[in-house]
Amino acid sequence: MNEPIKKIAVLTSGGDAPGMNAAIRAVVRACTYYRIECVGIYRGYQGLIEGDFEPLSGRQVSNIINKGGTILKSARSKEFMTEEGRAKAHENLKEVGAGALIVIGGDGTFTGGLKFIQEFNFPVVGIPGTIDNDIYGTDNTIGYDTALNTVVEVIDKIRDTASSHNRLFFVEVMGRDAGFIALNAGIGSGAEEILIPEKEIGIEKLEESLGKGRDKGKTSSIVVVTEGEKIGKSVFELADYIKEKYPIYDIRVSVLGHMQRGGSPSCFDRVLASRLGVAAVECLLDRVSGVMVGVINNEVVLTGLNKAIKLDNEIDKELLKVAEITS
Ligand code: F6P
């Protein structure tokens, strides 16, 4: 990193998350503020390989702070996993005159960024954008808060119908292998049981807890299940198992799916994304590369991309206790 940076490229990659647009906007506006150029790359690393670029000015990112998804689109590129793909991507960046790259996404996105630094010594900074909140080095990833609010809103609605029909609902939420969405949305929506991969619960404990609910006179229940945690069964198999053993329950399954990734970002996500977008540009201008910008205890913090990828964001034990006590 010897030459002064005159142009920064930005891309979004992996699963989209609400607030990614706010992050793009902040990156572009920070570039304008510091009098450097910004170029947007469409479709993540795949667009980088194909040279799908567009110069972005401050005005071009007007009215996107409130929009879900990502205006730059996203993709998971198999070609970027090959040396040839990455070499082509590097050529394209040089050709367009970009001196640094900001990547917005999760684990896979940062792994790509790290490879790029190792192979070409090209400056890269990461911004954590995923609804899963499974990135080490930040209290919240962009999109997580919005997704939580979406899930809570939907579970509230499911509870209305569950209670009207005296039903037991299994609600599957996203999170890949992480239980952050399930645990927090489960507490926030007053779920009777929460199944997350980080905590062994076992089928007996689930049965016991449903039984306790019955004894207390509960006529309807919500069990929130992380997609990565099914006690060795799919959420439908889990529901069938309980149904067979306890015919007393009128059971339904609701898989929330991709609706959790959409929608207008919450104010929290917009502010977080704005802070991280500005911080990422400032990092590169300070000649810092190979890091992810995050916010811990309300302070912007830098974490090595290798650490952000390798280490796990721990589930808060106190939250587990709260879930246990309040359910
Ligand atoms: O990482 C975000 C996420 O929404 C996960 O929660 C989920 O497992 C995965 O992406 C789904 O990926 P796709 O959109 O490719 O089906």
Question: Structural class from helices and strands?
Answer: alpha/beta
Order of helices and strands: EHEHEHEHEHEHEHEHEHEEHH
Q: Whole-number average pLDDT? A: 95
Strands side by side in the biggest sheet: 3-2-1-4-5-10-11
Portion of residues in beta strands equals 15-25%
Counting structural domains, the number is 2
Note the gap between the termini: 54 Å
Which regions have little confidence, pLDDT < 50, spanning 5+ residues?
none
Query: Can you name the CATH architecture of the largest domain?
Result: 3-Layer(aba) Sandwich
Bound molecules: 6-O-phosphono-beta-D-fructofuranose
Number of helices: 11
Rg value: 22 Å
Q: State the total count of DSSP E strands.
A: 11
What coarse outline follows from CA principal-axis ratios? elongated
CATH topology (fold) name of the largest domain:
Rossmann fold
Helix content: 40-55%
CATH top-level class of the largest domain? Alpha Beta
Task: Give a quick account of the main beta sheet: strands, pairing sense, barrel closure.
Answer: 7 strands, mixed
Describe the 3D structure.
With 327 residues, this protein is of the alpha/beta class. The protein has two domains: 7-143 and 265-310, Rossmann fold (3-Layer(aba) Sandwich); 146-261, Phosphofructokinase domain (Rossmann fold, 3-Layer(aba) Sandwich). The protein is built from eleven helices and eleven strands. The protein has helices at residues 20-33, 44-50, 83-96, 107-120, 144-165, 180-188, 202-215, 235-245, 267-285, 305-310, 317-326, and strands at 7-12, 37-41, 53-55, 100-105, 124-128, 168-173, 193-195, 221-226, 251-255, 291-296, 299-304. Strands 3-2-1-4-5-10-11 form a seven-stranded mixed beta sheet, sandwiched between helices. Helix 5 crosses helix 6 (180-188) and helix 6 runs parallel beside helix 11 (317-326). The mean pLDDT is 95. 6-O-phosphono-beta-D-fructofuranose is lined by residues 15, 106, 130-132, 174-176, 227, 261.
